Amino acid sequence: MSQKQHILISGAGIAGPTIAHFLSQTPHSSFHITIIERAPAPRPGGQSVDVRGHGLTVVQRMGLEDTIRSRATNEKGLRFVDSNDTVKAEFPVGEGEGFTGDIEILRGDLAGVLYDRTRGIGEIEYVFGERVSHLVEGNDGIHVEFENGLPGMRVDAVIAADGWASRTRKLAFGANVSKDAVKDLGQWAAWFTIPRSETDSRWARWYNAPGKRMMLLRPDNESVSRTSLWIMPPQDDKTMDHMAKASTPDQKAHWSQLFKDAGWEAQRVLRGLQAADDFYMQKIAQVKMPRWSSGRVALAGDAGYCPSPISGMGTTVALVGAYVLAGEIANHPNDLARAFEAYETRMRAFVATAQKLAPGAPSMANPQTQWGIWILYLFLGLVAWTGIMEKMGASFSPPAKAMELPEYEFGKKR
Which residues form the FAD-binding domain (predicted)? Predict the structure, then answer.
């Protein structure tokens, strides 16, 4: 090609930089990629995420497995505990189908590794503190306007990789289609870090409290514990929707009120919550779009097919989807419609499988009563004791290799 295709990627999390990496590895380097990110700089930390199955294969094809393993949290597995911190069930790290994935790493650390790999590549340009404000598609490409001062530009394609609440998706597909694609699972979560204590170890600990409440403490590769609070409010209770728009102090106060009588290590957790400078809350949802492309705009990662944090598959699906999308664009650089169609054809079944949650989830894992919690722990204890987790793994976490991962011309490059 006499002129490089200009690809704009919205989102510098997991999918965006992965797409950029593989496009930059095409034999003739026929793409120029601009990645915009609304955050002012790469965001460190965040929640622990799993890299499983084909997600790990994609990481290997990028030549990043050793780097990512060196940044892993080294979580040994998951323990379900009662109010006395007695272990009721224990599940060690599995081979892609258990509670804990092949690699556990902080989301920000993984994004940082991907950023470091791509930022020095000449075909890739990063712009932080920016987001798309307007899209106009024409015969010769898409004219894009930006919110915070970046001059408008004409690009050949736009890839929305800006999360489950994607602004770019809304602009490209329309507000109603974008909103209808978000499937509320009836659960909310708050994430933050707290100082480690003597009760913390390399095991994650899961504690249920009556009222469909749950606390999860996970190890970090630093001196803190990654903490999350989870709750399923009554369906007609819209308080959380209002709190999502409130100030951080008001949000913290509300979560503290919800968990003040939860027992176990609630008081320690809530003290840490008040001091945390990385607190954020989020609705737990899936994204199910009828199509993943509209004209010259394609969706990737959570923007197109978020399986939700409770699936354990979000990062793997984002990595695999990014790899396949980049591969199909590279195969069909002058026919984006064909590239996007091939991408969706290859990925649809895999995404559908990844979005299949465990039967009754998330409600089954968040009982309303103490009796329900006792039954849950009895069941999990039986599963752990009998050693049938390997056979039942797919019931708890969708298969991470439920497709044939294609080989592209760049697929084995390092």
Answer: 6-352
pLDDT tens string 98-141: 566 678 899 999 999 999 999 988 899 999 999 999 999 998 89
CA distance 310 to 290: 22
Tokens 């708890």 correspond to 396
Q: How buried is 382 (Cβ within 10 angstroms: 0-12 exposed, 13-18 middle, 19+ buried)?
A: exposed
Token pair of 252 as six digits: 């913290």
Q: Provide the β-strand partners of residue 297.
A: 158, 294
Torsion of CA 83, 87, 88, 92, to 10 degrees: 140
411 pLDDT more than 50: no
User: From the CB of residue 91, how many other CB atoms can be counted at a distance below 10 Å?
Assistant: 22
In sequence order, the β-bridge partners of residue 146 are 132
In angstroms, the Cα distances linking 31 to 21, 27, 36, 162, 295 are: 11, 11, 16, 21, 19
Two structure tokens written together for 48: 């622990």
Q: What is the number of helices (H) and of strands (E) in the chain?
A: 14, 18
Other beta carbons within 10 angstroms of residue 87's beta carbon come to 14
- Tell me how far apart the 2 most distant CA atoms of the chain are, in Å: 69
**If DSSP codes are grouped into helix, strand and coil, which group holds residue 228?**
strand
Contacts 24+ apart (CB under 8 A), 167-174: 167/10, 167/131, 167/132, 168/10, 168/11, 168/132, 168/135, 168/297, 168/303, 169/289, 169/299, 169/303, 169/304, 171/132, 171/133, 171/134, 171/135, 172/135, 172/294, 172/295, 172/297, 173/289, 173/294, 173/297
- Cβ count within 10 A of residue 363: 14
Residue 111 vs residue 52, higher pLDDT: 111
The structure's pTM equals: 0.91
**35 with 21: CB under 8 angstroms?**
no
3-state SS, residue 49: strand
Mean pLDDT of 181-186: 95
Please give the helix or strand (H or E) that residue 170 lies within, else none.
Answer: helix 167-173
Tokens found for residue 373: 């919690």
Residues 6+ apart with CB under 8 A from 378: none
Whole-number CA gyration radius for the chain: 21
